[in-house]
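Memo to structure team: turn this sequence into structure tokens by end of day. - J.P.
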Amino acid sequence: MRYVGREQRRFDEPAYDEHGSNRPCGGFTEPVQVAQLLPSTRRRGMLGGMAKPVAKLAVLIKPKHVWVPALLITGMLLVAIVYLRWQGRVWWCEQGDWWPMSIEVNSPHNSQHVFDAYSLSHVLHGVLFYGFFWLFRAPMSLGWRLVAATAVEVTWEMMENSPLIINRYRAATIAVGYQGDSIINSLGDVLSFVVGFYVGQRLGLWKSVLFFLAVDLGMLWMIRDNLALNVLMLLWPIDAIRSWQAGG
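Reply from structure team:
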């Protein structure tokens, strides 16, 4: 990221984006880091009583603390593994197939390999959560926003594999024989989520919107299911949609 010199930078000037262009930051691009502006704002007296809290937050984005978000995300995954194993989830597909990907939706391989057709939904989760946590870019660095977003995703993975949600899927959707995800599939879902988070960060607002629509509509065409229908059928099942998804 390119920064304007401290003596030349004014607060009413637009920030520069992470690619070094001279357009104002907007959409999902990252603003100038607080740590870079802090010495100047102190001299000008513009932070006032907020100088100390901002200084504490600025410490979180220093390079020597980059390992902390990674450690926290690793801890979340370990907790999820323990929980999933406690719920009786298997490590891998029990059909004897070690291929890392399976795109057969109506088969015992679905949700049992590292990646499947629904991995694309988790990529879209990442894009959505990047957009949501972008709103908190002022107090939170990119790494800490990824930690917060991953915490939500991992919590959903654990809830999705609870008896309550599994039974709901069986009763309300076409996933009649759904037995829950394998542990390796849940980890693959989180990895897909992180990829989506990175995609949102790289594309910006409007390209992310187009990407989201293209992927969701593509899933609808390929497997008659997508993120939008998944949420709709889980919360408010519609018999006509379920019949269409089943091929009726």
